[in-house]
Design goal:
With 305 residues, the chain is α/β, with parallel strands linked by helices. 37% of the residues lie in helices and 24% in strands. An eight-stranded mixed beta sheet has the order 6-7-8-3-9-10-12-11, sandwiched between helices. The protein has a four-stranded antiparallel beta sheet with strand order 2-1-4-5, with helices on one face. The radius of gyration is 21 Å and the shape is globular. It binds adenosine-5'-triphosphate (ATP).
Length: 305
Amino acid sequence: MLELRGLTKVYRVGAFGGERLHAVRDVGLTVHPGEVVSLVGESGSGKSTIGRMVLGLAPPTAGTVVYAGTDVARLRGHRRRKNYYREVQGVFQDPFSCFNPVFTADRVFALIRAEYFPRATDPEWRRRIAACLDTVRLDPAQVLGKYPHQLSGGQLQRLLIARALLLDIRLLVADEIISMLDASTRIDVLNLLGDLKARGLGILFITHDLSLGTYISDTTVILRRGRIVESGATTAVFDHPVHPYTRRLLASVPRLHRTWAQADADLAAAGDGGGCLGCARHPGGGHPPVEVAEGHLVGCFDDSA
Ligand SMILES: Nc1ncnc2c1ncn2[C@@H]1O[C@H](COP(=O)(O)OP(=O)(O)OP(=O)(O)O)[C@@H](O)[C@H]1O
């Protein structure tokens, strides 16, 4: 359904844009219907830039975002882009910034109606909204007609997911959508994503939090400095991490009943897991990712460039 091929983004930064920042380098991945792919990496690793390229909000410097066989960068004209957004939507980290405090929060629904369903009758539209609110487990009486400041972050985030669902989307880009929510609300929203996946939605789940990735995803892609260092089935990546960066990330996840001193020891013990398999096979460096088990790919250990 979604395929990223050699996706690369270079930003011009510095005085007069004279410097180049390689935010994303040669990223390839796929998201199938009913699949959750976690894109995991530390701050600045390029996750949101990938999400923005998928949503057509930033043009790739090189490579392609292919959705249902079409290169998204070539979607010219209002109608073709509108059709794309009918099927592909994004929900972002900070729900508060997505609402205009001057209007009631459900205005986000009215905007969708004006753009996509101008001929819907009022009763039809109310039924549609009620169905979407039901899916995200919101009570219409508690959220409709309320201003953003009268709703919690979790309620606002669900309203945004409900807005996306009004469109019968097939792919959701969820960019850190639960990092601003408290622990119990997080689980609710994660479980909601699980329900959507069961209905056949593909989800690109962007997070810096490995534990959230494990909870929900089928496939995990670990990103470092814009490059994929390891990818594969989530169980394979978490149970048998190979790249030293993945091993360190896993060792640094805070766990109940483990103090920072123990975490420090685990970090030291994580080590580098032996030498780089790819360099052993292709001396001279610059090798492509190596398949260490079926579908489990590991990049070069020397990803410092
Ligand atoms: N519009 C932009 N212009 C210039 N540089 C940018 C722009 N957007 C992002 N960057 C830079 O690109 C790199 C990747 O940023 P990006 O936001 O994609 O990372 P991220 O992994 O999503 O980080 P975070 O988890 O903190 O949101 C960073 O170094 C960032 O400063």
